[in-house]
Prior knowledge:
mainly alpha; single chain; 4 helices; globular; two-stranded antiparallel sheet; 147 residues
Amino acid sequence: MTRGSSLSDPKVIERINRDFVPLEFNVTRGFPEQFPGLKLWEKAYERKFKSLLGFTTTVILSPDGQRPLGTAGMGYKWQFDSSASYRPDKYLLFLDQSLARFQSARAIENDPRLGAEEKQKKLALHRADTERAIDESAKEAKLFVDE
Length: 147
């Protein structure tokens, strides 16, 4: 669904090519083990979507694949007017927010003024804020909860 709308937009394509490393997975053959940041989506797939035809979404992971930085949601047809999957302006905002989360985490990690303990505390708060943002993005699709 996204491929025929937001992912076909020239501005979105340019931003992805400039700031991200796009990968596509067919999860019917399993989720890639080298990307543990996809565990929430793997659980949602196993719980809700495996018996269906699957699902499509965009997830931004940290460069090491360890943690998610953002999700565009599901892009159901009934969300045509509101989903980032169909609205390039919203998709660009999602990309911007995900990149900003990465940059702010990197700034904490590289701040020479912070001791190890303070860095860990700040990173834990940052991860909690990121998880809340992801939960909010997924809430409308009820992606991580049972119906």
